[in-house]
Amino acid sequence: MSLVLDPAAQDLLFREARTANTFTDEPVTDEQVQAIYDLVKFGPTAFNQSPLRVVLVRSAEGRERLVPHMAEGNRPKTSTAPLVAILAADNEFHEELPALLPHFPQAKDMFFSERPARESAAGLNAALQAAYFIIGVRAAGLAAGPMTGYDAAGIQKEFLDDDHAPLMVVNIGKPGEDAWFPRSPRLSFDEVVTTV
Fold first, then answer.
1. Is 91 helix (H, G, I), strand (E, B) or coil?
2. What is the three-state SS of 34-71?
3. How far is CA 193 from the centre of its chain?
4. pLDDT tens for residues 39-66?
């Protein structure tokens, strides 16, 4: 059986999409970011908890604060990408649950009254949303360069607070010259899927 999604869209989102390491200086607009969010917000999370929070770094001052916290190899591309997004998990997401889950408002206290339960749920579900975000960037015709090579404590202190845990930093823009590393291998269907 083939997929319903058009092959060109499959290529855009998956087969031809790669992590970008260089970017042009073409700006990423607020309208593009809004369109990305307005698409990816519909991706599922447990209890519709939606714990992903995004800090957009555009200014020179913001980059001066961010770049020193990046791993050495990630600094040049983070310095030159038109837009950088810090993706974080909100460990106090449960405060929004009465509005996000109106048919089950008691979920806030029933399942998420304890901080360790919230941190676990926020980390998993914000990571799901981060993946949706990357696909949304691709759907906008842009390239994403997600990175986890950074000083998490430094980024949290500089841009977040104790209730928000950084998950990844994503450079965003139009791919520049020599943007791609060679495609790495993937596991086959039979190596991943087991039927019982």
1. coil
2. HHHHHHHCCCCCHHHCCCEEEEEECCHHHHHHHHHHEC
3. 26
4. 999 999 999 999 999 999 999 999 999 9
User: How far apart are alpha carbons 87 and 56 in whole angstroms?
Assistant: 9
Cα first-last separation, the chain: 21
Question: Please, what's the largest Cα pairwise distance for the chain?
Answer: 55
Please say if the pLDDT value at position 1 is more than 80.
no
Rounded to whole angstroms, how far apart are CA atoms 171 and 67? 12
Token pair 């307005």 is found at: 38
- Please, what is the Cα angle at 124 between 121 and 125, to 5 degrees? 80
Q: How far apart are CA 35 and CA 13, in angstroms?
A: 16
